[in-house]
Each structure stands twice: as structure tokens, then as C-alpha cells.
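Residues determine shape. Next comes a sample protein:
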Amino acid sequence: MLRGGRRECESGSRAGQFETIRAHAPTLLEQLRKQFGVTEDSVKGTGQLARVVNALASQQWTGPEGSFAGVRTIYPVLVVHDRGSAAPGFGIFIDAEFRRALLPHDSPGPCPP
């Protein structure tokens, strides 16, 4: 019975945690965007990376002495040093924010082998 009571307590506790997370999700997303995304006030992480990719893809910036003018494929990498980056769903959030900040580009087609 103690075991059953403990299980009920644990599951009730988890349900409460999920409700707390759900209630604070908009605030959490806002904080994550301030740290890693694009807001009205700043451009961080994913936005900075997207800005460089956009400039390269549009030939607006081709690097020093045009050294990136011939680039056809870009592999964007965002390095994050933050304990929160290990949280489930963080990678999905970062990917969505990057795609949101990325402008549409013509695709050169599949990468050569």
C-alpha cells in the first residue's frame, strides 16, 4: 500500500510538473529566443548564423577577396555551451529558430558524392 501510495504521489507530482511546464511554456520560449534566436531587440545564435548563410547564399558577402564566391554548399553549425542545451527538445527549437531566420534560397541540388 505504501508502494501504491508512493506511485500515486509520484504520478501526481509528474502531472503537476507537466502543468507547470505547459503554463510557463510561452515564457520559456521567449527566454530561449532572447538567448539563442531573433527578437525585436536582438539577433543571437541562430539569427547570427542565418544572417551569415543568407549573405553567402545571396552573394551579398563573398568573404575576404571573394574567397567564398564559389561556395555551393553550406553546413551551418551552431556551438552552444549552456546546460539547458541538453534539455529534450532544445535541438528542435534551435533548428526551428534557424529555419525561421533563414531566407529562401535556390538550392543547387543534391551534394555530389
